[in-house]
Amino acid sequence: MSAKLAGVVVVLGAVVATLMLGGLGIGKAPTAVQLTVTRDFGSHALRSNGPLKASENETVMSLLRAHDTISTVSGGHIVEGIDGLASGVRAGHRQNWFYYVNGVEALRGASTTGVSPGDHVWWDLHDWSQAEKIPAVVGSFPEPFVNGIEGRRWPVRVECAAASGTACRTVIARLRALNVPAAVAAIGSGGAPETLRVMVAPFGGLEAVLAESLERGPRENGIYARFSANGRALALLNQDGGVAQTLSSGAGLIAATRQREEAPTWVITGTDGAGVELAARSFDQATLEHRFAVAVAPGAAIALPELSP
Q: Is 28 exposed, middle or buried (0-12, 13-18, 19+ CB in 10 A)?
C-alpha cells in the first residue's frame, strides 16, 4: 500500500470512529459514577462506592465529601486525609493523596473538577519521590475508552506494528466488545492530540519518542518500568526507583502516559512478539483494575511499581 493510500485509510478510519462516537453506531455509555479509594499505588483497596449518581454541579471534592470523612488544607482545596488516613512520611516515604478521573491525573484541584455521568473517580495515597506526576494509569479500565475525558468521548485509534497480527486483533476485539469503535493504523502514522492512541508493538517497533521515554523510567513518564536500549530486557521498578526484577523474553507491559493536555497514549508492548501477545491477552478489567501499570510474564501479572517490603 502506498503512503498516500495508507494516509487515506487512516483518515477514513478516524472519520468512521467519530461518526460512531456521535451516536450513529453505538448506544449511550454507562452513566453511573464510581468512587474508589486506595493506597500504595492501588495495592490496598480501602473503599469503593458505586454505582452513584452525581448531582448536576458535582465536583470531585463534593463527591468524596459526601461518601467519606475527609480533612483538607489550603482553604479546603487540597485533601489531606481520607477516613483518618492522612498524608505524611511513612517508612521514609513521603505520601500524598492524588486523584484520577477515568484514569487521567487531573490538572486542576478537586474542588474545581466536575464529575460527569459515567466517571470513575479514583483517589490513591502514594509516594511521589520518583514521579511527581503520574499523568495516566490503566487501573480504571475500560475508562477512558468508554466515557472519555471531561464528559466527552474521544476517538480511539489502535496503532499496530502488524495490523493482521494476533495482538492487534485481540486489542481491537476487546475494545469493540465494550462498544468502543476504534480506527486502525500503522505505528507512527501521526495523530490528533484529542485521539486516544493504543500502541501495540514490541518495544523496538514503537515510535522513537515513546521508546526513548520508556528507557528513562517514572521521572520521565510516570511508569515504574524501564526497557533496555535494545528492548530485550524490561526492568520492573519499586517505589524508590530501584530495580525489583528484570524480565527478558516473553515479557510484556501495559501502561499509559500523557503529554500536557493531550489525550493519553496507552502502550501494549513487550520485549518481543510473544510478550506483546501476552500483554494483549491481559488487556482486560480483571487484570488492570486498581493498577497503575502492569507487567506480564508467562503465568504472572505484576502490578507496578513493585512495593518494597
A: exposed
> To 10 degrees, what angle do helices 166-177 and 273-281 make?
10
According to the model, what pLDDT value does residue 221 have? Answer: 95
Q: What kind and span of H or E run contains 214?
A: helix 208-214
Residue that the C-alpha cell 480501602 belongs to: 46
* CA 48/CA 258 separation, integer angstroms: 26
pTM (2 decimals)? 0.89
Say how many CA atoms lie within 13 Å of 56 toward its Cβ: 0
Contact between 279 and 254 (Cβ < 8 Å): yes
Residue 241, pLDDT score? 94
Residue ranges of domains in the chain, CATH in brackets: 33-127 (2.170.130.30), 156-304 (3.30.379.10)
Phi/psi at 74 (nearest 5 deg)?
Answer: 55, 50
DSSP-based three-state secondary structure for 21: helix
Q: What is the pLDDT of residue 53?
A: 87
Could you tell me the mean pLDDT of each successive run of 10 residues in the chain, 309 residues long? Answer: 39 40 49 94 92 90 95 90 92 91 93 95 96 96 95 94 94 96 87 87 94 94 96 96 97 94 94 98 98 97 90
Cα(293)–Cα(42) distance, rounded to whole angstroms? 10
Q: What's the distance, Cα to Cα, between the start and end of the chain in Å? A: 53
Distance CA 84, CA 103 (A): 25
Q: Which residue has the cell 521508546?
A: 211
